[in-house]
Write the structure tokens for this entry.
Amino acid sequence: MTHQEEYSLNFNRVYTTYFHRFVRFARSYMATDEAAEDVVNDSFMYYWENRDTVVDRNLPAYLLSVVRHKCINQLKRQAIEEQAKSGLQSLEEWELQLKISTLEACNPEKLLSDEVQHLIRHALEELPSQTREILIRSRFRGQSNRIIAAELGISVKTVEYHITKALKALRIALGDYFLCLFFFIN
């Protein structure tokens, strides 16, 4: 029997002897049986691919150590994913609360009043002509930034810059009315 055959036979023996024990160990940390089996299979595969560099004489202890590290890595990955989901959920909740408070503060009579219409007209008149034209095309005519850029012979980034500049000027000019109106002109 060659050294390679002996090595394979020993590996097969360890695999059949310890596989289910390692899965039970991993299952105590992983969410599903499939995830635990994946970790154990990955651990055996890792060992097999690196068998020439492993000098540990106690193969089951070494493999259990690999399973442990793979479990830790998987749990850390899950924690990062959960943290990201939580952050997105918090952002969604914040946006929802903003929408609710904006709607509660929105008074349709004031929103459509002559005073607000005058503030809007005045704010638009104060904008540079190109900025005003881009805002009108974007928010009142519903043209996309790409179409505006093509028709005016400017870059999309320039269109975005002018829209940002216009919205900032409107936010200052309209004060408390801006949040309600933002949904009309956005």
